[in-house]
């Protein structure tokens, strides 16, 4: 499924599970729609259980209840890292406050992530007196969110993105696909072994990914201490209720106390609205602004950026509830694999000799755009394994995504447009606003995809099979059948021909 096809379904108000390989554009797609926070928004904080009094206290919180009652859409990013228990709690809070038994109180829920990546860390316990929301098999004993009763009740439409925007190195993609299938052997291991380096041969100023926090902190402080010159200190400031400020600090990639020197290797920790940098952009501190003291960072290509303080905030009803302000940088000689999830890197030194979690090696390696950007210090067997449950669910999600495409075709552009307009109106929008964004328009989407949404006939499928078995290329088949190459590949996969 393409990003535009997923976006068309998102705009109808359907609850969605948006998934796909790293680099397929999940974050980009959801950023085109809207974003929100799960834990902080629902008020559950760090809880993994709720009792009746907890629910009543949350409902009595006018600010919390107000934002849940007025909300139309809830987006939960990196869903693979959210425990099933937490998803159930968010669902329970939404139903209780909105006063309805429908899943998540009737909100459109958009779940974004890839279960081949890092799984959640869970505490497997239920304390006496706590609510047992679904009697045993609701996810309280299961790690992944898709095992929860909340997921089953929601039954989200699956959009499995098939495009690839990060890697175009086919041998490297083959390695990543092999890891994704728990089948990394032979030639795949040889390709990784070819990128092994000794510690005394490490390239300068390349980000290093490690599996443990202690190793990251030690390397960053050691490297900073080696630099001559004055240390510049930047302290994070906060406004608003203390618990909200602390929650923002925990979620912020910039540290509470940031210490920099000239020539420090740094990484930007936030997307710049002006487009000068994104979360994960690497650079080198070249100077400090004489007037403001802000660090001047040179990024790839030689461009200099004054890294002025920015604000992370929680808004309610269009007003700021809490915020933290800090320079959007962190030391980046080394970072943890967990912190790297979602980034794109041109090159990195990666040590997977102590990998301990399913998906850890896959996340680290898939940050890179090309195999030539990998400098591998170590590797163990666990680094090449993904969670068996992720593999088991993958075929199910792919099949569900194919059914979603069939639904899109069956509804047709007129009905899709009608549903999009209706959903926009329920969210307080106007049709004129939707029409202004032509790139999201279903009619334009259909035009740009030719007959991408047209249902396949039996005759077309027979012709497709015959041409494929005769060795014709996807492009040639697409031209003959009047469909886009992506539609041809999708149908070939559905027919189990590739």
Helix/strand-derived category reads alpha/beta
Helix content: 25-40%
For the biggest sheet, the summary is:
5 strands, antiparallel
Mean pLDDT across all amino acids: 80
Number of helices: 19
Radius of gyration: 24 Å
Structure description:
The chain is an alpha/beta fold. The chain is built from 19 helices and 18 strands. The strands form 5 sheets. It has a 5-stranded antiparallel sheet, with no helix packed on it. Strands 2-3-1-4 form a 4-stranded parallel sheet. Strands 16-5-17-18 form a 4-stranded parallel sheet. The longest helix has 39 residues, at 388-426. It is globular, with a radius of gyration of 24 Å. Residues 123-142 and 430-453 have low confidence and may be disordered.
SSE blueprint and pairings:
Layout (H helix, E strand, L loop, with lengths): L2 H8 L5 E5 L5 H6 L7 H4 L9 H9 L1 H9 L2 E4 L7 H15 L9 E5 L36 H6 L2 E5 L8 H11 L6 H7 L14 E3 L2 H14 L5 E4 L1 E3 L2 H10 L5 E4 L4 E4 L13 E7 L6 E5 L4 E3 L3 E7 L2 E8 L2 E3 L2 E3 H4 L7 E5 L7 H6 L8 E6 L8 H39 L4 H6 L5 H7 L9 H12 L4 H8 L3 H10 L4
Parallel strand pairs: 1-3, 1-4, 2-3, 5-16, 5-17, 17-18
Antiparallel strand pairs: 6-8, 7-14, 9-10, 9-15, 10-11, 11-12, 13-14
Helix pairs in contact: 8-9, 18-19
Throw out a few tags for this protein.
498 residues, alpha/beta, four-stranded parallel beta sheet, globular
What can be said about this structure in brief?
The protein has 498 residues and is of the alpha/beta class. The chain is built from 19 helices and 18 strands. α18 packs across α19.
């Amino acid at each position: 499924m393409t990003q535009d096809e997923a976006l068309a379904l998102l705009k109808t108000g359907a609850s969605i599970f948006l998934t796909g390989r790293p680099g397929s554009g999940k974050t980009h797609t959801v950023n085109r729609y809207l974003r929100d926070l799960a834990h902080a928004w629902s008020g559950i904080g760090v809880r993994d259980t709720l009792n009746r009094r907890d629910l009543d206290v949350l409902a009595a919180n006018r600010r919390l209840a107000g934002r849940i009652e007025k909300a139309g859409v809830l987006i939960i990013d990196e869903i693979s890292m959210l425990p099933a228990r937490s998803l159930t709690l968010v669902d329970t809070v939404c139903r209780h406050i909105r006063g309805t038994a429908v899943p998540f109180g009737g909100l459109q829920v958009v779940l974004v992530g890839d279960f081949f990546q890092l799984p959640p860390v869970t505490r497997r316990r239920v304390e006496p007196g706590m609510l047992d929301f679904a009697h045993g098999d609701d996810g309280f004993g299961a790690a992944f969110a898709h095992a929860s009763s909340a997921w089953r009740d929601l039954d989200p439409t699956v959009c499995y993105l098939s495009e690839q925007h990060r890697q175009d190195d086919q041998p490297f993609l083959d390695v990543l696909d092999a890891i994704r299938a728990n089948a990394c052997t032979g030639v795949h291991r040889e390709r990784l072994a070819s990128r092994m380096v000794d510690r005394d041969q490490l390239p300068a100023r390349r980000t290093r990914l490690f599996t443990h926090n202690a190793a990251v902190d030690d390397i960053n402080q050691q490297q900073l201490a080696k630099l001559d010159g004055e240390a510049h200190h930047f302290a994070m400031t906060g406004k608003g209720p203390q618990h909200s400020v602390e929650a923002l600090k925990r979620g912020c990639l910039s540290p509470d106390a940031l210490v920099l020197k000239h020539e420090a290797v740094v990484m930007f920790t936030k997307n710049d609205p002006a487009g000068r940098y994104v979360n994960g952009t690497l650079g080198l501190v070249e100077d400090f602004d004489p007037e403001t003291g802000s660090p001047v960072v040179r990024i790839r290509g030689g461009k200099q950026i004054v890294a002025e303080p920015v604000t992370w905030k929680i808004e309610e009803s269009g007003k700021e509830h809490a915020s933290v302000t800090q320079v959007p940088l962190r030391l980046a000689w080394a970072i943890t694999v967990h912190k790297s999830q979602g980034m794109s890197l041109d090159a990195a030194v990666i040590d997977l000799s102590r990998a301990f979690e399913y998906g850890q090696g896959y996340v680290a390696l898939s940050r890179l755009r090309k195999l030539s950007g990998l400098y591998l210090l170590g590797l163990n067997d666990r680094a090449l394994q993904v969670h068996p449950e992720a593999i088991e669910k993958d075929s199910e999600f792919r099949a569900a995504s194919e059914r979603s495409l069939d639904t899109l075709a069956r509804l047709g552009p007129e009905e899709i447009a009608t549903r999009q307009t209706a959903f926009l109106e329920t969210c307080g929008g106007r049709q004129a606003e939707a029409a202004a964004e032509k790139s999201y328009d279903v009619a334009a989407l259909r035009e740009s995809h030719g007959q991408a949404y047209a249902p396949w006939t039996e005759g077309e499928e027979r012709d497709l099979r015959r041409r494929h078995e005769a060795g014709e290329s996807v492009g040639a088949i697409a031209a003959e059948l009047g469909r886009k190459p992506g539609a041809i590949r999708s149908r070939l996969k559905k027919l189990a021909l590739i």
